[in-house]
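Entry 12.
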Amino acid sequence: MTIIANDGCKINIQYVYLGVYFMAIKSVSIRIDEEMLNKLHVVAGYEGRSANSQILVLIRESIAKYEAKYGPINEPIRPDVNVKPPRKG
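Predicted 3D structure (tokens):
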């Protein structure tokens, strides 16, 4: 399903069954140059993740750093959704 946000942006939403409730997974498009994208794939592959999962890890780390400095953001974040654990060793 696609919805239009207040600012006119299109947001694609999937409803994913996670246990006993549904969680909306939103899609975000980014502009990225080819070299950076290729490097992202190398880092993600090394960690045993997809590029998408690697981006989610980086976003979560950024949010955790922000909250450690400025206090919690009042929206819950599920750290286990769509992210594989880091490679061991």
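Annotation: The CA atoms of residues 6 and 12 lie 14 Å apart. The first helix runs from residue 34 to 46.
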